[in-house]
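Support reply, case 0932

Customer input (verbatim):
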Amino acid sequence: MKFLEDPYKTLIVGFGLTAVLAVAWVMMVGMPEGGSWVEQIFRWTHFLAGITWIGLLYFFNLINAGFLKSLDAGQKGVVIPRLMPNALWWFRHGATVTVLAGVVLILMLHPSPKGTGDKAVWLGGLLGIIMMVNVHAIIWPSQRRIIAVTKESAETGKPPSREVADEVAALGRKALMASRTNFMLSIPMLFFMSAGSHLPVK
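Our regenerated output:
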């Protein structure tokens, strides 16, 4: 099973395994209605992207932020340029796909916030949109600049100027606060997204 040594090959095999098992499942239970397949594809996409996005959000807040604080400038010059670009690529695109697939699902299943479940899902969706805006408007632009400065400093062997260092510190604080806000918002967001289908109100 050499493919397990490469995460991207493992991902491809995971999709292939899903297709094989889905065909076997259809052979056992019968073909679902056409519209159900569309809904399921968007739901599956929403789940996969959401796990990627929120998983990385929790990693950044519970593990990575504290770890980076423990590093000196030289260690940061090695770790940040190698770790953060790839992690943030999955993070920001996971956020985008999660929200876009979620919006499609809301329009398909909860087109207006009339019922109790509709209101819960719309509230959860609104929190998710706020979180995605934080990712693209604050977290990623700030981290992109931090990565560039850290990489340049590591390659040249020269520390950034006082002005640039102050800028990086301010951007780091800004990105951290936006990330902490998303971390906080994710908790009620997940509550209301699940409440839409699993917490009926009489």
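We compared this against your earlier run and they match. Two observations from our side: Residues 1-31 form one domain. The chain has two domains: 1-31, 34-198. Please reopen the case if you see a mismatch on your end.
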